Amino acid sequence: MHLRAGRPPAMLREVMLRRSRPSLCRVMMYTLLFLTPLSWLPPLPPAAAQTELAVTVDDLPTHGEAPPGMTRLEVAERLIRSLQRRGIHGLYGFMNGRQVRADPKHLEILEAWAAAGFRLANHTYSHLNLDSVNAERFIEDIEANESLLTMLARGPAAKLFRYPYLREGNTLEKRDTVRRWLAAHNYRVAPVTVYFEDWAWNDPYARCRSRDDRPAIAWLKESFLQAAADRLAWSDVAARRIFGRPIRHILLLHIGAFDAVILDELLEAYAAAGVRVISLEDALRDPAYAEDPKLASGEELTFLQQLGRARRLRLPPGSAPIPRHVLETVCR
Asked: Where are the domains of the chain?
């Protein structure tokens, strides 16, 4: 999909906020109190090319609370429609099959995803944290997910894997054991370079919807778009610092209700800022992803954060913090 060019990533925040600017006094109060300006970010050099970004979605079939009046299937269908309106095809959703065992009705969500022409990939059966289990238990959980993936695949099942919580192991032995198994079974790890904890907005949205608190919902949109802009801009700067050039980025979203509600606005803001949405396969062709950080951090780190730490590079200061305290208390 080719989106309109013309603005470097450093302008994303301005464009996103202009597109969604609320006029309510209460929202302005939220913004003044809790949104941190993008003062940390050094200016980007003029972009030699469009920022290229693959969109991926984790935790299918469901994630987070569903707001009143919206079923789990409707969440997925709304997200699917937003992607289709933008001409985005073949997008990957990373699946946890245990959800279907817990509620067989969730199978219809995965079927709707596949019927829309989107792909499903392995995110472990139970959304296990590798830091909390041994390598053998983790590998068993990957294998447990394969039968459902094979059943739902239209053609060969995708051999892509993403670590839950972006945690790849708290010891090198554990990390290397899982990596060797993945390679032996023809899996490729799907890393993440752009992540802004989008999931943190889903439960607050469900609460605010139940109270019909429209100013609070407007603030949720404002703060979500700012976080998305900040983290993409940081990732662009960090990639240039590590590789000396722009790279093809990979964005992590989740299949939550608020993601579905705001996805149109997010994609519109990216398009207005000159972001070109590409497939995950195209992103992974970037030579940057051939590098293995060989890092056992025991932390939730993106690919760029891992590489920066492994190379002992001085990356730009962290992006504006996610307003977690406000998200946890709003509409309570």
From this structure: 9-40+52-329
Helix (H, G, I), strand (E, B) or coil at 221: helix
Between helix 72-85 and helix 257-272 the angle, nearest 10°, is 10
Neighbours of 171 (CB within 10 A): 14
Tokens 């962290």 correspond to 318
> How many Å apart are CA 73 and CA 112, to the nearest integer?
8
Q: What is the pTM of this model?
A: 0.88
Q: Evaluate if residue 28 carries a pLDDT over 90.
A: no
Helix (H, G, I), strand (E, B) or coil at 276: strand
Q: 8 and 275 in contact (C-beta within 8 Å)? A: no
Longest dimension (CA), the chain: 58
Amino acid at 2: H
CATH 3.20.20.370 holds for 9-40+52-329: yes
pLDDT of residue 283: 98
